[in-house]
Design a protein that fits this description.
Length: 310
């Protein structure tokens, strides 16, 4: 029996898909925009409201905005050594898929050759590559808070949705002797995130025991040893092997005990080869990390209120 492809079934099949893919970009964009206009004209106000009520890609965020903004300001204060930047909600098409094992099907693609940002660290990698191509000798340190959208299945629990806020850090520059730049950058990210939790306690957040899992490939074990040596005095640290090809040999995960006693992996980061590939310079190092601020407010913010659809 021939397997039916749901992406083309009933719409002309593979030949039509290939014909559309082969159109010049401007022609395809015009076609898709015209199609969207026709479909929009067929929708009634009731249709729009119905989608707003049930579509998890739309609607209100799960936290109070004032509470969320205060938390983000505290995190940015903790990252005083990073330049704070505001990113656009859109990024070039394949911002994630071109440099990592990410399927475009998990990303909201627009009809204008762009995509809705699904991971701020990938966009920060673009900006780091742009700057380092102009001046490869000046390291780049960037921080941002951004609402991102991911087109993948989400847990059926309060506070989880296709869109959420991320606090992200990115560091890029030329590798130095004995991987010194990489070691310093990764240590700085972990220390900055831990300092951010200290800042949040001044806003009434309550955190339980904190710990860090440091994962490394065999080739990166010596580098991980040096990172662990610097972090062990300030936080409980465990070493683990890394077998995930999304990272360039090093990854860290910050875990915090929640009020209900569960242990939550609340932040993670590591080394990536994205900037080296984007700038076509193998000597460039890129370290990025992310923290789900929306989840932090919900789990550790105490008086944070959860928005609900009725």
């Amino acid at each position: 029996m021939t397997k039916r492809d749901w992406t083309t079934a009933g719409a002309g099949g593979e030949p039509l898909l290939r014909a559309l893919a082969g159109l010049p970009g401007s022609v395809l964009t015009s076609f898709l925009l015209t199609l969207a206009d026709l479909r929009a004209r067929e929708r009634s106000p009731a249709d729009v409201l119905r989608q707003w009520e049930v579509d998890t890609f739309t609607g209100l965020a799960a936290v109070d905005l004032r509470r969320l903004l205060r938390a983000e300001l505290r995190l940015l204060d903790a990252a005083a050594g990073f330049e704070a930047v505001e990113l656009a909600p859109l990024a070039p098409l394949a911002t994630c898929a071109a440099v990592g094992p990410t399927s475009q099907n998990k990303i909201v693609t627009t009809m204008r050759g762009t995509e809705v940002v699904s991971d701020s660290t990938n966009v920060l990698a673009l900006e780091c590559a742009r700057r380092l191509r102009r001046d490869p000798h000046t390291p780049v340190r960037l921080a941002t808070c951004q609402r991102v959208v991911r087109a993948q299945e989400v847990p059926r629990r309060p506070g989880y949705a296709h869109h959420f806020k991320l606090f992200s850090l990115a560091t890029a520059g030329r590798q130095t002797r004995d991987h010194g730049f990489l070691v310093d950058a990764l240590v700085e990210h972990v220390r900055t995130l831990l300092r951010g939790f200290d800042q949040l306690t001044q806003e009434g957040f309550t955190f339980g025991r904190r710990s860090v899992r440091l994962l490394a490939t065999t080739a990166r074990n010596a580098v991980a040893d040096r990172i662990a040596e610097q972090l062990a005095p300030v936080v409980d640290l465990a070493r683990r092997p890394l077998d995930h090809d999304y990272y360039d040999g090093l990854r860290f995960i910050i875990e915090i005990e929640a009020p209900d006693g569960s242990v939550v992996p609340i932040a993670d980061g590591g080394a990536f080869d994205w900037v080296a590939r984007l700038a076509a310079n193998r000597r460039l190092v890129f370290v990025a990390s992310g923290l789900g601020t929306q989840l932090v407010v919900l789990l550790f913010g105490g008086s944070a209120s959860l928005q609900s659809r009725k």
